[in-house]
Fold:
Amino acid sequence: MRLFGTNGIREVVGPTLTPEFTTRLANAIAGTIPVGKPVVVGWDGRTSSRALSSIVSSTLALAGHHVIEVGLLPTPAIQYMVVRLAAQLGVVITASHNPPEFNGFKCIHSDGLEIPRSAEEEIERRFADAPSSAVPYRSVGEIGVHGGGAREYVHGVLARVDATRISARAYTVVLDVGNGTAAVTSPDLLRRLGCRVVTLNGHVDGTFPGRPSEPTEANVADLRRAVPSVGADLGIAHDGDADRAVFVERSGRYVPGEEILALLARDAVRRHGGGIVVTPVTAPDSVEEAVRPLGGEVVYTRVGSPNVTRAMLARHAVIGGEENGGLVFPEFQLARDGAMTVAVVLDRMAREGQPLDVLLAGLPHHTLLKEKIPCPLDRREETVRAFAERFGPGAERVVTIDGVKIYHPGGWVLLRPSGTEPLLRLFTDSKDPKRARELADEALVAVRASIGT
Structure:
């Protein structure tokens, strides 16, 4: 039984994600580690997260584990605390950027990385077989609380950048928290970096009343208007669990995540005199064009932060990340980290003495288009196969790391099943915006015809 997608487990609360499901999952997780080991539990601000965390903590304690609740925190902060508290495992209750009716679970290894697929499979086996992990009454574990996680995490981020240099610039920043967990860390981080902070959607609310949780260009329209309106140097937006950050230039232009990835990858490769950059197959060719002249090499993976971080660990990468704003800085931790991304971007601006738009102007530029196509779960794989059969013959190159990526003259098109929703995700990339649009339109017609929509 497959439970885990590209980034943990995500289900709709009520129909699928029930108290019974949660208890059974927590029992399965509990049985994968030795009795008596410490386990960190943290959660996001969704309406169901606190209740689900209580079920998880109680089930783990009844299995004999010592539970340390770190509370409502960004996912990367919880990963950071797993290592600091020397826990055997971490459980994060979050559905990241999914709509508010969803919630889910991520499991964190003792090294702070999301658990590998082999560990996910063990949990899935135990979930299916449902052996009890409960222990006798004398062996029941305790549930403790550690309340300093937000402060410790912010201090950890600050230690990786030149806070004095950034503070000297006295930047004005508009921060769109998106009613997510960044509310407990990012405003404090920015103020400690000497920024004047104007906040939007700055309180935690699991219904996401201010905007949808995913910080796409359309969803952060208020931020794009606010940045030039207040004369800010930069705009920042997070997703629901703050493992991603996207940016808005002083003019109000939304910066696609792949541009930040290319900028910071080039900087990391330059500082290291070369090195490996890890990114999923969804990244545009501009990342490779940015780092190759400096001795950088791009290693491509399947989509999903566990795939990226595990490949980074194996290849000793200097940086990694996805085109959606989820970047990984191995010198801090092998986790997608929105706050660390914010600090590094400000550090780069302060070091160069240039605004973000000027820093981005020197990068290779591609147009990366993204489309979501609703598709029943049982039709996704056959639709991808049909797409490959139609567009693969005669292509310059076909890559099947994740879905199918087909290179045509002047660009490429990628179709893959979503790992978190009943969708197909379509990506097209080209130096020519018109060519990118042509590839996307042609692919959309074919995919919708195949599905019957």
Observations:
- The first strand starts at residue 9 and ends at 12.
- The two ends are 29 Å apart (CA to CA).
